[in-house]
């Protein structure tokens, strides 16, 4: 027990409120993993242009691998190298989670029922290149090739023809290899929680200045969960008098149009709901303000992770009880242009607010199963409602319903040129059918 206490003391001493450069950040993550080997897993998902590791620390009762029924969550910070607050508060979040495991029942349950991935910096080169901290702008925003990583993902609305950067590619592969359900990426330069879509067209309503996803209600809830648990974000005053955000949230497109952003990519191609958190008016504030930023965000960071347990989850199996990967499972009325499919374990996770829904499970080539579920608010119990589907006539491995790589919403726009906004859902459904054919 004395050894454990010593570990805690040395860890607490190691993490003070200052900026941690590459070597210190890496040393800290390795130290945490050494002190809590059964609760953490440290790995690099790739390298930056200059060859720096993109470290991810995974925390949970089963940190090294996915466990059936336990959802995957992630936080990513510092994708703009000169936006630095998120990078530091994620280190303090790690410290808070490991030191409170088995002490605080809330944190213990959270870690027992969630696999949490934390990437303190997606753009380590940009951070190191920011020699003169600045509140508004520096070259360090970009990666070493001068690319803005938050304009570098495939876009669902237009062919953005970007050269995918090593940091972006690493994150895309990471998303493909994990079953992420919920995520947030941490930025600076404003104080607001921004949500999908960042780009849009007439089908998603962008002509009205708001680009609405099929899960708009869930996104508003997620953004408000963060802003109302944050010390001041919910007040909506923003950073100057020109810009106010009611409740401290905004639809991404309503704020400004963005092509090739990470949050839309997560939602469309990764089946992962992601919001963008702008945490500080000053992009690279003085180190003596970091402690206050941590205090302002601490509760919100934890409450947001809990939302990964919203909605319904389960497994789709065949007549022999074997999992069926690539089965489509979606709530009626909210189809995704890239159908949301089960993972290799036949699992699905759907984030939905409490209420009554019809869940449609489809194994391509067989008839669909429809089930009505009444979803309670289960975030406090750290487990979404569980509902499994068993296809008695199926005993085969299915091939995935293809999801086009080209911008998906262009097709929708063409087919809806003459369609009123109220028919958006109908158009989405039609597109889904076309995709399946």
Automatic annotation (TrEMBL):
GO cellular component, as recorded: extracellular space
A Pfam family per the record: CarboxypepD_reg
MF terms in GO: metallocarboxypeptidase activity; zinc ion binding
Alphabetically ordered keywords of this record: Carboxypeptidase, Glycoprotein, Hydrolase, Protease
GO-annotated biological processes: peptide metabolic process; protein processing
Entry superkingdom: Eukaryota
Peptidase M14 domain ranges (all copies): 18-308
SMART domains attached to this UniProt entry: Zn_pept (SM00631)
Key word Hydrolase present: yes
Statement: the UniProt record of this protein carries the keyword Secreted: no
Residues annotated as the enzyme's active site: 278 (proton donor/acceptor)
Coiled coil: none
Family: Belongs to the peptidase M14 family.
Protein name, per record: CBPM Carboxypeptidase
Organism expressing this protein natively: Anseranas semipalmata
Gene (UniProt): Cpm
């Amino acid at each position: 027990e004395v050894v454990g206490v010593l570990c805690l003391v040395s860890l607490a001493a190691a993490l003070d409120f200052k900026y941690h450069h590459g070597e210190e950040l890496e040393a800290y993550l390795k130290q945490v993993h050494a002190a809590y080997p059964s609760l953490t897993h440290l790995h690099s998902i790739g390298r930056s242009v200059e060859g720096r590791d993109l470290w991810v620390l995974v925390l949970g009762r089963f940190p090294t691998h996915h466990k059936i029924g336990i959802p995957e969550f992630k936080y990513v910070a510092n994708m703009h190298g000169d936006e630095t607050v998120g990078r530091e508060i994620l280190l303090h979040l790690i410290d808070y989670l490991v030191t409170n495991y088995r002490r605080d029942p809330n944190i213990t349950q959270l870690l027992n029922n969630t696999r949490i991935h934390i990437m303190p910096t997606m753009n380590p080169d940009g951070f190191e290149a920011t020699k003169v901290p600045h509140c508004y702008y520096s070259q360090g925003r970009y990666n070493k090739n001068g690319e803005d990583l938050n304009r570098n993902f495939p876009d669902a609305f237009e062919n953005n023809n970007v050269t995918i950067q090593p940091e972006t590619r690493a994150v895309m592969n990471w998303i493909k290899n994990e079953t992420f359900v919920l995520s947030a990426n941490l930025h600076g330069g404003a104080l607001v929680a921004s949500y999908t879509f960042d780009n849009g067209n007439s089908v998603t309503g962008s002509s009205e200045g708001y680009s609405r996803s099929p899960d708009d209600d869930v996104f508003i809830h997620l953004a408000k969960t963060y802003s109302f648990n944050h010390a001041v974000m919910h007040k909506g005053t923003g950073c100057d008098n020109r810009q106010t955000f009611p409740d401290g949230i905004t639809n991404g497109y309503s704020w400004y149009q963005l092509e090739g952003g990470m949050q839309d990519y997560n939602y469309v191609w990764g089946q992962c709901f992601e919001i963008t958190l702008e945490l500080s008016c000053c992009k690279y504030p003085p180190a003596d303000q970091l402690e206050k930023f941590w205090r302002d965000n601490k509760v919100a960071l934890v409450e947001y992770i809990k939302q990964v347990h919203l909605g319904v989850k389960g497994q789709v199996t065949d007549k022999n009880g074997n999992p069926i990967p690539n089965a489509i499972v979606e709530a009626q009325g909210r189809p995704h242009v890239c159908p949301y499919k089960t993972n290799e374990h036949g699992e699905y996770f759907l984030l939905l607010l409490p209420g009554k829904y019809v869940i449609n499970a489809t194994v391509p080539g067989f008839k669909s199963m429809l089930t009505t579920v009444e979803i309670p608010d289960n975030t406090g119990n750290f487990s979404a409602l569980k509902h499994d589907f068993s296809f008695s006539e199926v005993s085969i491995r299915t091939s995935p319903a293809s999801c086009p790589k080209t911008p998906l919403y262009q097709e929708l726009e063409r087919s809806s040129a003459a369609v009123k906004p109220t028919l958006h859902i109908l158009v989405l459904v039609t597109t889904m059918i076309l995709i399946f054919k």
